[in-house]
Amino acid sequence: MQTLLSPYPLGTLELPNRAVMAPMTRNRAPGHVPNPLMAQYYVQRAEAGLIVTEATQVAPESLGYPDTPGIHSDEQVAGWAGVTRAVHESGGRIFLQLWHVGRIAHPAFAGAEALAPSAIAAQGQTYTPEGMQPFVVPRELDAAGIARIVEAYRVGARNARAAGFDGVEIHGANGYLIDQFLRDGTNRRKDAWGGSVEKRARFLLEVTRAVVGEWDDKRVGVRLSPSGTFNDMRDSDPLATFGHALRELAKLPLAYVHLVEGTAADERHGGTIVPTAALRPSYPGTLIVNGGYDVQRAERVLAAGEADLVAFGVPYLANPDLLERFRSGAALNEPDTATFYGGGEHGYVDYPTLAAARS
Q: Is 2 a domain residue?
């Protein structure tokens, strides 16, 4: 594991290894405010080269799930400051993921409003305080609404600085608002934000430039999911769409691009799988890949130069000492899927470690 465990310079940050803790929604923020239990969770995983937090709302309207944290109020900034302080005291590095769910928001959550590039509802249902409910038809954003959301991202980035984060990641993946603008399956506009791939990428680039303007030294990442079908997503030519987006992002002073790779489930749901190798030439900067990696596959992709860092999701969720297990060849904990979303300590901060087993 000479590659995965080797250091990596990320802008002015020196990562001690190339393993990234992927962003994972855990629904442990009652009132949408980060808390000490969340700090404990992230501290347990501070050995990661980089932690990317769970997705975090940049605006009150952007509520699609219960108990997810925000970054738009003083109370939320103070809560996150407790998290970053604890992670830094443990020697870790942590980026905040900035999020607007767009059409996935549901009015059953107080203050939430489904907004999108076009008035096209996602197919399916979502969990709400009133139980499972169909997705609603979103309100199509006008130019003023788009500008307001770009500003919300800017303020969220500024608030993340105030909370002590080392950087931010813009969530442009998984069928949320930025992804909805990018893809022609959800963006049917005929104005400056729709139609051609250049126009569909405009919102992503406006948000990214606004966020970059709040940070120095390459402290902004962008996450994309070219092959993803989650939240009823599709695109007629994802290679062209995301190739263009990556070429434009390469012109900006980013820390990295984070690609969520396609899965068999995406293919079953009609998605076109776009290999990372086909997109790599469009983005020569630091590339993080994420998609069911184990240590052997991670080593292969790093050694081949196909990516610079590898993000692990469920393995980090269930193994706070993931790197120690990689080093020693120890078996990984079995993840408890029943406790992935919501609850308290169980299935969140009580997974066993090798050190505890030895003591």
A: no
Can 8 be counted among the known catalytic residues?
no
Is there a contact between 50 and 15 (Cβ–Cβ < 8 Å)? yes
Residues 220-266 pLDDT 10s: 999 999 999 999 999 999 999 999 999 999 999 999 999 999 999 99
**Angle, CA of 44, 66 and 121, to the nearest 5°:** 125
SS3 265: helix
Secondary structure in 3-state letters for 47-104: CCCEEEEEEEECCCCCCCCCCCCECCCHHHHHHHHHHHHHHHHCCCCEEEEEECCHHH
What lies within 8 Å, CB to CB, of 30 at 6+ separation is: 67
Quote the pLDDT of residue 266. 92
Contact 333, 351 (CB under 8 A): yes
Residue 300: give the domain boundaries: 8-358
Collapsing DSSP to helix, strand or coil, 132 comes out as: strand
Instruction: Tell me the C-alpha to C-alpha distance, in Å, between residue 26 and each of 68, 80, 122, 294, 338.
Output: 8, 15, 22, 22, 11
- Asked if 56 and 96 count as a contact pair (C-beta separation under 8 A), the reply is yes
Termini Cα distance of the chain: 26
Residue 130 has pLDDT above 90, yes or no: no
Q: Select which of 176, 283, 293, 316 is catalytic.
A: 176
Read off the pTM: 0.98
How many domains, the chain?
A: 1
For residue 140, give the CATH number of its domain: 3.20.20.70
Mean pLDDT over 134-160 rounds to 98
CB-CB contact of 165 with 96 (8 Å): yes
